[in-house]
Amino acid sequence: MARIGVFICHCGENISATVDCEKVAKVASEFPGVTVSVDYKYMCSDPGQNMVKEAILEHNLTGVVVSACSPRMHEPTFRNACAEAGLNPFLCEMANIREHCSWVHEKSDATTDKAIDIVRTLVEKVKRNEALAPIYVPITKTAVVIGGGVAGIQASLDIADAGHKVVLVEREPSIGGHMSQLSETFPTLDCSQCILTPRMVDVARHPNITLYTYAEIESVDGSIGNFNVKIRLKSKSLDEKLCTGCGACIQKCPVKKIPSEFEQGLGKRTAIYVPFPQAVPNKPVIDRVNCTYYIKGKCKVCEIVCPTKAIRFDQEDSFVEVQAGALLLATGFDVLKTNFFPEYGYGKYEDVIDGLAFERLASASGPTKGEIRRPSDGEIPKKIVFIACAGSRDPAKGIEYCSKICCMYTAKHAMLYKHKVHEGTPYIFYMDIRATGKMYEEFVRRAIEEDEVKYIRGRVSQVYEKNGKLIVRGVDTLLMGQAVEIEADMVVLATAGIASPGSEELAQKLHVSYDKHKFFSEAHPKLKPVETNTAGIYLAGACQSTKDIPETVAAASGAAAKIAGLFSNDLLKRDPLIAVVKKCAPPLYSSCTGCFMCIPVCPYQAIDKEEIKDRSGNIIKTISHINPGLCQGCGTCVAFCKSKSIDILGYNHDQVCAEVEALLNEW
Amino acid sequence: MSAHIENNSLSAKLQHATEVKSAKCYQCGKCSAGCPVSNEMEYPPSVAMRLLQTEDPENDKKLLKSQTIWLCVSCEMCLSRCPMEIDIPKAMDFMRQKSLAEGLSHPKSKNIISFHKAFLDSIKFTGRLHEISLVADYKLRSWHLGQDVGMVPSMLSRGKLPILPEMIKGRKQVAEFFKKTKKT
Amino acid sequence: MQKKIGYYPGCSLEGSSREYSESVVTLANAFDVELVQVPDWNCCGATAAHNLNSILSFSLPARILAKAQEAEMDTIVVPCAACYNRLTMVQHELKKNDTLRAEVNGIIGAELKCDIKILNIVQFIQMFVADFVASKQQFLFDKKVACYYGCLLVRPHDVLDFDRTEDPQSMDEVMKSLGANPIDWPFKTECCGAGMSVSRTDIVGRLSGRIVKEAADRGAEAIIVACPMCHSNLDMRRPALEKAMGEKLTIPVLYISQAIDMALGKSQKETGINRHFVPVNISLQNRVVVPEVVLEKTEEN
């Protein structure tokens, strides 16, 4: 005979504002099999949990229904409480009367009735629940880190330093990411490369880190603890073991005028190239789109001059497969590079550039050796207009969100310009100044007060060229919309930060969720900021949303700590909510007919065949078998099984049918 | 949701009649920056949006009494550049009609209003615009009797001013439109 | 062979801007297109109607659309940018808003289907002229020109869906095909002052003056327009512009249809340029070679 306890939570006012919780408790107490039914303001609090525990002991309960919020957050809480009181945790269920009821309806009798219905379905289900035991799977203590910017570098070093293996995969020829392009960093103005390059070198040298550059994720299968990651190593047209990085090939390459991606097009590179002098690894790749040999079939100058004969024109892409216990997404961001603001002349006038290009102009290693010179004629600009929010906070033409980093880097740009060109005047058109980090507001004040940056609160309507000047027409909204016209020599747009290209494709390969802007979604916006919704896959840095360096590094270390925590166990405990092939007594053994429809539909390759033998070893029957370590409990096989021979533990046919019937039957 | 709340502000009326929501404006100023006549206005478009946002009866009145709403040339530059896609030209149309209905229109905008009225009168009687009648009507309304007189001979000589209006067959029907739409 | 297409000239084209209508008819005839006027058409209401009376501003264009529908016109060409804008806006609003459509149908006593294709002059040229112009062109329009689009041809983009609102190119492309050299300039879609021509000529002087001066400063030999309001503000109001700018401005203003007519070798009477206030002192060279429409860019290594 079932003895079920029902515990109705008010969730403060989240539920009780629209649902009459006392009534729900009272009605539920009359459900067949319910022994005790109570309501309480915060069921998840310590006293609330004690109510559950005490009721289990006092009434010798056989099942518990906590009707409160979504099971996502608090199912583990209440299952643990039940276990502490001696009840098998899988005999505890959550009835979600918050997200599924109180939050989506107005206060009314119908809302309360719906809550009652939800509770009743779970009561019927829990009556049929069975005691289950968790399953344990071994963990492969290797992490694959995708993306070699500062986030990937930091996380790789942290995980590797904790004693675990790391495979770092970077799609460009060098690690370093956007941070390696930056000049000096706010709010301290320390040189970006000076603080980053030592870490890049550490990555290359670390015995626990395997680095694959010019490589991309081909496919991922498996699950937490045991992923199988296939990595495509794009052909570098080079035998890296032989190459010494002497650079002779680069010097002699006849194709010298390719706009350098690293220099944002402000500098040129050759067809065989390393992106920048401090690159890690410092070995070149051949850009086949621009290489004369690949276009016209002859040249091979690099091959001739290479002292170690390392050039391989016929090299093809190759693949490596890596077993990993966890994956970390650290693919970073990109800046919006389009002319979707034709009124600013971006893409039309050479001297209208974006913030990343300005970083290269201001960088000591950049195309102008750190002198601020405008791209069109190399003159030192006397006036620069910086336009903030060029694309950000603009649902009409750009993106609706705030890119977050631009206020600070624009202040920094104006400051750097002033430091380098004392007689110059920087203007910044802004809407709001968002300087919320440590020492950030002070930094902006310094730009305004000490470096005499002219902040203009308002927008620019148009930028056009006239007599070699860029005419910037804008408005000062603090002066009742007074028109402002500046004859500038250069315009720098703080273009929006957007998700890195290919993010959507990668998310689909990995089965992680992403938002409408193609940024990867965290599992919980506050409490699980470095986890994705897919167990075992973590994220860090600007691939989640645009972040500055301190935030990115903090997130990377956070994700690394999570992964190290996972790897601190040899076995991974998992809920046993997996599919099983039902067995029964001889002579049938199982209703499975051996059609094996389930094998190809399983997305996790968790199903194989099992032979049932008699005592003398003769095969009686071949049926499906589900590997509990691989099964994720998705239920696809259940739907495909014609003979209804597969059940999901915790969600078997009886339980689900009982739930549906409880909803359909008039009470 | 907020339909139950009594809100008599110009902003609420605007939203009800046109779906233009002044609350969307975050005061970036892009409209004022590109507006060809903002320098002539006492309240450039972004300031007009701010006045709407306050939902203060005094500010509502300021707008309806302003020259701003009559100086707007409906060029739509503001809308085409607004990051929030706020249809300011539609808001201006609404405020002009409100201003006239409440008899608040700015005395200095008399010329502009007279011209619009003369324009509509011309259509009302003939179905099409007749420029000589329009200008004559406008002159009577505005008392700018001498204005543009110098242009008449050269326009006539270029065949640009037909003396007699074109009368369309459906002119009575068109005149009916004016009656039927008068109240709205 | 002759194609028939609906035609809504609008009031200006019957009066102060009649040369525009003349040039459009000349152009259409040259390319075997017969323009059939919408029967008994009325004024679209222009700025005045939508400034003073919203529902009237829907009803007047609605009657025009109803008349075209009655005459079974599936396409109408509307050379006046202001009329084009009003008709397109109204058809769009009526199509998406059932309540408004019912109300307006009641006022005008018709059932609007709202499915008439409304072409502006540039679209008309793209559809009926552009492909054949090379075969009929007699003179090379070998001039630096400033294409001036104004407001109403390109805004609002969401509804009109024509070209783009910043730095549009469609008129430039047409002029290039005639052999002209369209300048890159920033005021292509700045407002000329529009309907303030009579009531606030001072404002028109400043706005249009700035536009004309900028085109002249950049070396343009003609301004090309597609709107009678723009034309009269830039041409007929030239003295006011000169007063506002404090200098003499002699650059002529041509409708795009007139420019093509000129390249076809049409007479002053046929193009209507004799009616302009600013004299059109443009003489064109006999066309010797077929001008390349598309300039192929040569790739450098």
Q: Would you spell out the secondary-structure blueprint of this structure?
A:
The complex is a heterotrimer of chains A (667), B (184) and C (301).
Chain A: E1 4-9, H1 21-29, E2 34-40, H2 46-59, E3 63-68, H3 71-84, E4 92-96, H4 98-102, H5 109-127, E5 135-138, E6 142-146, H6 150-161, E7 165-169, E8 184-185, E9 190-191, H7 192-205, E10 209-212, E11 215-223, E12 226-233, H8 248-252, E13 258-259, E14 268-269, E15 272-273, E16 285-286, H9 292-296, H10 301-305, E17 318-324, E18 326-329, E19 333-335, E20 352-354, H11 355-362, E21 383-390, H12 406-420, E22 425-430, H13 440-449, E23 454-457, E24 460-466, E25 469-476, E26 482-488, E27 490-495, E28 497-499, H14 503-510, E29 537-539, H15 549-567, E30 571-574, E31 579-581, H16 598-601, E32 607-613, E33 619-626, H17 636-640, E34 646-648, H18 653-664
Parallel strand pairs in A: 1-2, 1-3, 3-4, 6-7, 6-18, 7-10, 18-29, 20-27, 21-22, 21-27, 22-23
Antiparallel strand pairs in A: 5-30, 8-9, 11-12, 12-17, 13-14, 15-16, 19-28, 24-25, 25-26, 31-34, 32-33
Helix pairs in contact in A: 1-5, 2-3, 5-18, 6-7, 6-15, 11-12, 12-13
Chain B: H1 10-18, H2 30-34, H3 45-54, H4 57-64, H5 68-71, H6 77-81, H7 88-101, H8 110-126, H9 131-142, H10 151-157, H11 171-180
Helix pairs in contact in B: 1-7, 3-4, 8-9, 8-11
Chain C: E1 3-7, H1 18-30, E2 33-37, H2 46-52, H3 54-70, E3 75-77, H4 81-96, H5 98-108, E4 117-119, H6 121-129, H7 133-136, E5 139-140, E6 144-147, H8 157-160, H9 170-177, E7 181-182, H10 201-217, E8 222-225, H11 228-236, H12 238-245, E9 253-255, H13 256-264, H14 268-271, E10 285-286
Parallel strand pairs in C: 1-2, 1-3, 3-4, 6-7, 6-8, 8-9
Antiparallel strand pairs in C: 5-10
